[in-house]
Design a protein that fits this description.
The protein is an alpha+beta fold. The protein folds into two domains: about 140 residues, Adenine-n6-DNA-methyltransferase TaqI, Chain A, domain 2; about 140 residues, Adenine-n6-DNA-methyltransferase TaqI, Chain A, domain 2, CATH 3.90.220. Helices cover about 35% and strands about 25% of the residues. A four-stranded antiparallel sheet has the order 2-10-7-8, covered by helices on one side. Strands 13-21-18-19 form a four-stranded antiparallel sheet. The protein has a three-stranded antiparallel sheet with strand order 3-6-9, with no helix packed on it. A hairpin with an 8-residue loop joins strand 18 and strand 19. Helix 4 packs antiparallel against helix 9. The termini are close together. The model has no long low-confidence stretch (mean pLDDT about 90).
Length: about 375
């Protein structure tokens, strides 16, 4: 087997800088890069007259697309076939791949490695986030012969397909479990409708920010992803005058992203940590709601739809979800004794859910681990 070379991207890529003038009467696909090397996706389809900057670049499938500003945050990817002909502004750089030397799939996998990201993050001063085309062409990568690249891509693609199948299987099981929960919710509620404010109430533990203290932070993932710990913020590093301290079973709502499922119950291990005033905390009203039941309810897309109806606007322009809007939502709600029966059923499923979480974490770690192995053992 031939040794791998170590080449600069300038040896296998060519910066292509060509612009067109948009026609106001034509529709154009616009694409964008997702952060953290998550790939290139469709942004929207708009009429030329709605685009202020008329000089745009046309993307071709298989090209390497890099965002000038977001590259250090993983804002780059390979243009997929579906986005052939999509346009991007001058704040993106397009690079043609020399297919006689480099397989586009091989590059697609390489740019997801820590070795590549470290090169991008190290480029230039820390006070200037943008990169230039010359920076990209100067990055280096290990490169085996083309046939070996294609064999590696084939193996990685097969593994990625297995990962996708496992995740789809888990999604299907969890979707059925959620459907069962909602079925029970409606059946046990009957004609009983309550305001959310009848079963949960705003309860916040405001802690003044001190310059000599640190405040471990918590974030909320959208789409029922739950809470997660973040780095601590020093009192001297924030303009907030106070943070909200979390407590066990606090229902944490992101005012900005609550409408897309960014709300969750606080587990024991995150109690005592902090969230900014952009997150509001609520507690269950004794005798009206059980935390475990409410925690399950707010994980459902059905509940997120209620939040969407309670706030005005569309997509990113949707207004913040204020506590009064949240508490004014009306919904079917079973009495607490009925909620308890459902919670007992859910408790029997908790071990299965924990197992699914473990499987997902291990499954999602397969590709990154394999990439590090492949490229760190370059020979």
């Amino acid at each position: 087997m031939r040794r791998w070379s170590n080449v600069s991207l300038g040896e296998v890529l060519r910066h292509r800088k060509e612009f067109i003038l948009l026609d106001d009467t034509e529709y154009y696909k616009r694409c964008r890069v997702q952060l953290h090397a998550k790939g290139v996706v469709l942004r929207d389809v708009v009429l030329g007259s709605a685009i202020k900057t008329k000089r745009q670049q046309v993307c071709h499938a298989g090209e390497f697309l890099v965002a000038e500003i977001d590259a250090k945050m993983g804002g780059f990817g390979i243009v997929p076939d579906a986005l052939e002909g999509a346009i991007v502004s001058s704040h993106y750089f397009l690079f043609e791949i020399d297919g006689s030397k480099l397989d586009r799939g091989f590059l697609d996998y390489f740019i997801r490695t820590t070795g590549f990201r470290n090169q991008v993050e190290a480029q230039g001063s820390t006070n200037y986030a943008a990169i230039r085309p010359a920076s990209v062409l100067g990055y280096r990568m290990p490169l085996p012969p083309l046939a070996e690249q294609q064999a590696i891509v084939s193996r990685l693609d097969a593994l990625a397909d297995k990962v996708r199948q496992v995740n789809e299987h888990l999604d299907a099981i969890e979707k059925k479990a959620a459907a069962l929960f909602l079925s029970l919710h409606y059946k046990l509620s009957g004609d009983r409708v309550r305001r959310l404010g009848d079963v949960v109430e705003l309860h916040e533990e405001h802690v003044p920010v001190r310059a000599d203290s640190e405040y471990p932070q918590v974030g909320v993932r959208s789409f029922g992803g739950g809470l997660f710990p973040k780095a601590a913020v020093a009192g001297t590093e924030t303009s907030y005058k106070a943070f909200n301290r979390l407590y066990v079973d606090a229902l944490v709502l992101s005012q900005v992203k609550g409408w897309e499922g960014a709300l969750a119950l606080c587990p024991t291990e995150l109690a005592g940590m902090y969230v900014s005033p952009e997150y509001r905390t609520f507690r269950c009203v004794p005798g009206e709601a059980m935390p475990a039941y409410i925690g399950e309810l707010v994980r459902t897309p059905w509940f997120w739809s209620l939040l969407q109806e309670a706030t005005r606007g569309v997509g990113a322009r949707r207004e913040r979800t204020r506590p009064e809007q949240f508490l004014n939502i009306e919904l079917p709600m079973p009495p607490e004794n009925m909620q308890r029966k459902v919670v007992e059923i859910l408790a029997r499923q908790s071990s299965l859910r924990l197992r699914h979480t473990t499987i997902r974490q291990a499954n999602d770690a397969l590709i990154p681990a394999m990439l590090e192995r492949v490229f760190s053992e370059a020979h």
